[in-house]
Amino acid sequence: MLPSSANPDGAAMSYAAAGVDVDAGERAVDALRPYAEKANRPEVLGGIGGFAGLFALRSGRYTDPVLAASTDGVGTKLAVAQAVDKHDTIGLDLVAMVVDDLVVCGAEPLFLQDYIAVGRLVPEQIAMIVKGIAEGCQQAGCALLGGETAEHPGLMEDGGYDLSATGVGIVEADKVLRPERVRSGDVLVAMGASGLHSNGYSLARKVLLEIARMPLGGHVEEFGHTLGEELLVPTRIYAKDCLALAAETSVRTFSHITGGGLARNLERVLPQGMEAVVERGTWTPAPVFKLIASLGRVERAEMEKTFNMGVGMVAVLPADDVDRALAVLTARHVPAWVLGQVRRAESPGDGGPGSRVRLEGDHPRF
């Protein structure tokens, strides 16, 4: 037999009383609209608020188009943003993680759709998150085609949120960059990272916040600003830089250096029978990496497996295109240098992840 009333107060229940505020959702859409509308392209049909985003692929512009898609999130960097109550840059990280995977194969990012899950919907917070996403889309040259914000009371705490996004890009079939293009003698050109980017934050937070007990608001002399500011430096968006290289050089492919570090991500773009040699002596990782390694007594192998160590993207190029590539990147204000080279594998390796990428030498002043 059902109880006569499950509500001890006897009051009528509502969705809002259960923790979901539909009106707040509408206010959030109104608040984010000015930012989202700035991340646009001529191919976008309609505006914010429809059930689906529409994007017209103009006939005649492409001969044999291939669509590329990528989905990603930001990881536990979100915990830092939430701890310091700063939400206007985390969207840049989200866009970077998606579009910089797309350009690895030479695809131009066309549009992105985001998903934001929150414990309690605060319109002003959502607007700041979307502001960053929209700015990232503008930097990447893609449209913010739409998205979804979901309120999850009881599942997520108030003030907590998680982000993910899917991006779609396009490339002509005969211009797809892939490992099969890579040749022995090709040169690795590194593009500098802006910081930790969006990987390794579980280890970074464990060392800096739990073991060393460093306050997020504390000034760190090596950084010239607070720890929280350092940890929230947005991930560099390389999309337009990579597309410029693809237009100006005979680049073979790119490698986006994310989780797994240089070795594991570089290996993903090497054909069988080839290995890459990376010279540590060509760059000095930023102070944040040294701080994590020293305070946490983290071994070099673990650091290089977890973090980008200062290299966010790598271009694989024919040797005679290197000078041109460096000139293009310098003109675009991207720090770049020759990182190493590709050669025929001297041995099959141990078969472990990253075993066909050899990191040699030592970093100066690290």
UniProtKB/TrEMBL annotation:
Keyword line: ATP-binding, Cytoplasm, Ligase, Nucleotide-binding, Purine biosynthesis
Origin: domain of life: Bacteria
EC nos: 6.3.3.1
Catalytic class of the enzyme: ligase
Catalytic activities: 2-formamido-N(1)-(5-O-phospho-beta-D-ribosyl)acetamidine + ATP = 5-amino-1-(5-phospho-beta-D-ribosyl)imidazole + ADP + phosphate + H(+)
UniProt cross-references to Pfam families, sorted A to Z: AIRS, AIRS_C
Keyword Ligase assigned: yes
Start and end residues of each stretch annotated as Disordered: 344-366
Recorded metabolic or biological pathway in which this protein acts: Purine metabolism; IMP biosynthesis via de novo pathway; 5-amino-1-(5-phospho-D-ribosyl)imidazole from N(2)-formyl-N(1)-(5-phospho-D-ribosyl)glycinamide: step 2/2
Transmembrane annotation, as ranges: none
UniProt entry tagged with the keyword Aminoacyl-tRNA synthetase: no
A single GO molecular function term of this UniProt record: phosphoribosylformylglycinamidine cyclo-ligase activity
Principal location class: cytoplasm
Subcellular location: Cytoplasm
Positions of the PurM-like N-terminal domain: 66-171
Domain PurM-like C-terminal as annotated: residue spans: 183-344
Bias-annotated ranges (Basic and acidic residues): 357-366
NCBIfam families with a match to the protein in the record: purM
PANTHER family for the chain: TRIFUNCTIONAL PURINE BIOSYNTHETIC PROTEIN ADENOSINE-3 (PTHR10520:SF12), TRIFUNCTIONAL PURINE BIOSYNTHETIC PROTEIN ADENOSINE-3-RELATED (PTHR10520)
HAMAP family membership: AIRS
Family the UniProt entry places it in: Belongs to the AIR synthase family.
Full protein name: Phosphoribosylformylglycinamidine cyclo-ligase
Provenance organism: Pseudonocardia humida
